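User: Before I run my own analysis I want an independent prediction to cross-check against. Here's the chain; please return only the structure tokens and, at the end, one sentence I can use as a sanity check.
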Amino acid sequence: MNTSLQGIGMTSLRTRERMIKRLSEQGVHNKRVLEVMRDTPRHIFMDEALSSRAYEDTALPIGYNQTISQPYIVAKMTELLLGSSGHLNKVLEIGTGCGYQTAILAQLVDQVYSIERILPLQCKAKSYLWDLKLKNISYLYGDGNLGWPDYAPFDGILASAAPVEIPLLLLQQLAVGGVMVIPIGESGQQTLQRVTRKTSGYDIEELEAVTFVPFLSGKD
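Assistant: Structure tokens:
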């Protein structure tokens, strides 16, 4: 692995190990999630000027009024998505962003279908993910509200932006027994929710307060 991927100093494996210890203390217990978080170079998904802060537990700007979520949120949402099954086939991601969450998912599920509404962000994410040789990802430049019906139903859906309410089309594209992890609410009043589709209806759990960028319609 080249030095930029491996990391040095504040991006080294030792720094990442400290991040994993912190995540464990914060209540993330899925060993596979923790291993993938440790081994994935978060610092390559942001501007070099911010790379020394990559393993702090904070969200950081990635341009276009978007952020890379703090490591805890990425780990927690991934753990919630995987649930007790520990394995998912098809996962829909709403909001590719810089591609970091995509990279984590791609190492834990069979296939990721990722939608992004900001084309330059999608292009950058693709290059990062290609550098990591992650090939089980399909990309769509489009409106996340619409989902990706061509490949539905999905075993899991993860959203990296917060709508005021759960988009109906996403609910419809969730397989029976499937799980959606999504932040819901207005800015300053958002709650992370886990939605499980049953044979008749949906089971919705409200989990914890979170802060995400708003879930916008259309393409930018």
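Sanity check: The mean pLDDT is 90.
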